[in-house]
Write a structure and sequence with these properties.
The protein is an alpha+beta fold and 338 residues long. Among the domains are: 124-163; 180-318, Oxidoreductase, molybdopterin-binding domain (Sulfite Oxidase, Chain A, domain 2), CATH 3.90.420.10. The protein is built from six helices and ten strands; from the N terminus they run H-H-H-E-E-H-E-E-H-E-E-H-E-E-E-E. It has a five-stranded mixed β-sheet with strand order 2-1-10-5-6. A hairpin with a 2-residue loop joins strand 7 and strand 8 (275-276).
């Protein structure tokens, strides 16, 4: 539209297109179907200005955090790349890594072959142990009889027993040459053979054997004649007050008071561990004093002499207590054996 002064003006009223205050640029933008980058269209909600996303505050990882974060990241990455299957494989990889770390810390577990081999060796040991024990017993028993130092007596042997001898060798006695004499302050001195002793009433006792050096053999059976029976048969005189024991090794001696000798748990033993007392255990006949330390149970017994007073035996002369009650002598507190 041309004005009177000759200039052109728009035929469109800006009030009809876009509201008051709209410029030609605004009108033309609306006509062209464009959008106002700064203002929303009528009816649209005003869009907030975009902001940079806030980053979480970093903190020092506590124990286990770094590892958990790394593992979670691995699982997430695997899941994004391969879906659920990838996440599952990632968990398997992590479990395998943890297993390797456990192996490094605690050692690699044995395999099936190694386990079966170990069980086989164990079974073989059970089958061969009795034969090996007998061979060991025989070797150490023979060595102890030829060992003047007594060092072989320090080795465990014979089902928990240890061999002790105060002499370099001990002669063997059997049914043909063994004799046990009862003499001293008695009315009827007597000599017994093995057959004579076996014909007398037998008593069986089962108690722990306790050595003053510390070792103990539990529930050991002994069987023989009560010492009190032999003393009664010999007729102990009123002046008697003690018993002295001698042995056919030629060196060892022991003693008891008369009252101790009459205890029912003191035997002249012919059997030990349910078999005849062997030579290495003091056979064929030995003394067994159940409530006292084992040094009182003299091996290779050959003489019982009734005396007026107690005479210290071999070890008592070397510092051991004459009264050797288990747990109440020699400075020890072992459990009683009877």
């Amino acid at each position: 539209m041309r004005r009177d002064d000759g200039t052109l003006t728009s035929t469109r009223d800006p009030w009809l297109f876009g509201g008051r205050g709209c410029s030609n640029q605004e009108v033309n933008t609306e006509r062209s179907g464009g959008s106002d980058p700064e203002r929303p269209r009528p009816g649209e909600r005003e869009r907030p200005e975009p902001r940079e996303p806030e980053r979480p505050e970093r903190r020092a990882p506590e124990d286990g955090d770094a590892r958990e974060t790394r593992e979670a990241r691995e699982d997430r990455g695997a899941g994004e790349a391969h879906g659920d299957r990838g996440a599952h494989e990632a968990r398997e990889v992590r479990a395998e890594r943890e297993e390797h770390e456990a192996f490094a810390e605690h050692g690699r577990p044995i395999g099936r072959r190694v386990l079966l081999g170990t069980l086989g060796l164990g079974a073989l040991g059970v089958l061969t142990a009795p034969a090996l024990q007998r061979a060991t017993d025989a070797f150490l028993a023979g060595a102890s009889q030829k060992d003047p130092t007594g060092l072989t007596g320090l080795l465990p042997n014979g089902g928990g027993f240890r061999y002790y001898s105060v002499t370099a060798s001990v002669p063997h006695k059997n049914e043909t040459n063994y004799r046990l004499t009862v003499d001293g302050l008695v009315d009827r001195p007597t000599s017994y053979t093995l057959a004579d002793l076996r014909a007398l009433p037998q008593t069986r006792l089962v108690h722990d054997v306790q050595c003053v050096t510390g070792w103990r053999v539990p529930s050991t059976p002994f069987e023989g004649v009560r010492l009190s029976h032999l003393l009664d048969a010999a007729g102990v005189r009123p002046s008697a007050g003690a018993i002295r024991f001698t042995c056919f090794d030629g060196a060892y001696t022991e003693s008891l008071s008369l009252r101790q000798a009459y205890r029912p748990d003191v035997l002249v033993a012919l059997r030990m561990q349910d078999k005849p007392v062997g030579h290495n255990h003091g056979g064929p006949v030995r003394l067994y004093v159940a409530p006292m330390y084992f040094y009182k149970s003299a091996k290779w017994l050959s003489g019982i002499t009734v005396t007026e007073d107690v005479r210290p035996g071999y070890w008592e002369k070397r510092g051991y207590d004459v009264d050797a009650w288990v747990g109440r002598s020699n400075g020890r507190d072992d459990e009683p054996t009877s």
